[in-house]
Amino acid sequence: MAEESEVLFTDLKLRPELQAGVNAEGFTVCTPIQAATLPRALQGHDVAGQAQTGTGKTAAFLLATFNHLLKHAPAEEPRTSSPRAVILAPTRELAVQIHADALVLGGHTGLRTKLVYGGADYDKQREDIAAGVDLLIGTPGRLIDYFKQGIFRLDRTQVVVLDEADRMFDLGFIKDIRYVLRRLPPPDQRLNMLYSATLSMRVLELAYEHMNEPELVQIEPDKMTVDRVTQVVYFPANEDKAGLLVHLLKDMGAKRTMVFVNMKRDAEYLARLLQKNDVVAEAISGDVPQRKRLRMLRDFQAGELPVLVATDVASRGLHVPDVSHVINYDLPHDAEDYVHRIGRTARAGASGDSVSFACETYAFTLPEIETYIGHRIPTGNYDPAELPKLDRPPPAPRRRGGPRGGPRQGGAPRRSGAGGRGRRR
Q1: Dist. CA 4–CA 118, nearest whole Å
Q2: What pTM does this model have?
């Protein structure tokens, strides 16, 4: 459960059709981000909120969106293919999750909600939009594709929502976002909502440029989540990393465990190595077909896939409840990414466990991480002699123009100038 405030949904005086959606979801008490943003947004005022996935932000902006559409009928009969509201998300999985929530919360409104994203159902999605849409949810690339084809227009849009704005920048979508925003009615003629894990300067600049005097709401800065996570760091030699990972996964009886690496090819190799050594695991990346990605996430959430190996780019936007452990097989280059990673096992106020490997290649990022979170991470010890002997998978077929095989020495790429055994204490 997400942390609760003292505000009840019944206190918000929602329209009956929206209260029915809230009841269908089983919501009674607002989370802090809902309590802080919904009263203002329901009055038609812009909001820029800082909140993580799992804190209730999706319900906040969906309820405000539906309320605005119900409260403000269009000035003239809307064109069937002109969405009255647009919600942009950085990843397919997040867009799918928002759409699923919208179908429940808006199920009694009579408003038509449609979903567009890359990787599947191109013609069907286009036909769905052309048949009529009130709320259009999607990823930037596919949405702009249909817009440029003239499948729909944006000049009568009444609400726009940007979810995970910081990740929009990270994934290089900012030009696409600006392209969409500049084709909407002026900011003072629409309701604007923006949510982001961090309200960095670049996110705030976007908010002030394309929103109408937004109120900034910050609920629990990201790095506060580390207080609820038990953390430990090991200092393995590169050649010990894979063996230590297999040892820890089997020792903890891994279930709903996310393993993070820094490069996609390492994720793919590591998943094959784990499979070869009797650990059920799969790697998620942008190259995985959408149907397989959704199946993988369903299996992981159901506990049927114990270990999911991922990079930051592939994993951001995935809403996976009840992650038991996060393992940083590679320490991230950015301290904020460390907090994003371990926060996946502390969703919505829960506690969790994280394990990090400060190997010869990536140990140099540890001081910055510890400075950022405000304390040193406790050290774990292991005996190299007790690590299992691993069966190594054969190299993956070489892709044209791509790297050969898997990473060297247990999954960590060599870095010029990296030396020693990674011990620092």
Answers
A1: 35
A2: 0.68
Instruction: Give the span between the Cα atoms of 42 and 230, in whole angstroms.
Output: 38
Q: If we measure between CA atoms, which residue out of 284, 269, 261, 266 comes closest to residue 330?
A: 261
Residue carrying structure tokens 């919501």: 27
Residue that has been written with the tokens 């405030």 in this structure: 5
| Residues 112-138, mean pLDDT to the nearest whole number | 91
Percent of the chain with pLDDT over 90: 54
211: left (phi over 0), alpha (psi -120 to 50) or beta: beta
**Per-residue pLDDT reduced to its tens digit, 199-237:** 888 888 989 899 999 999 987 654 445 667 889 999 999
Burial (Cβ within 10 Å: 0-12, 13-18, ≥19) of residue 422: buried
Report the pLDDT value the prediction gives residue 379, as an integer from 0 to 100: 95
Domain 9-220 top-level CATH class: alpha beta
Whether residue 387 contacts residue 247, with contact meaning beta carbons closer than 8 Å, is answered with: yes
Sorted by where each begins, the domain ranges of the chain are 9-220, 223-386
- Closest by CA to 222, choosing from 92, 87, 55, 366, is 55
Residue 257 has pLDDT above 80, yes or no: yes
Number of helical (H) and strand (E) elements in the chain, helices listed first: 15, 13
Please state, in angstroms and rounded to a whole number, the distance separating the CA atoms of residues 409 and 240: 8
Indicate the CATH number for domain 223-386: 3.40.50.300
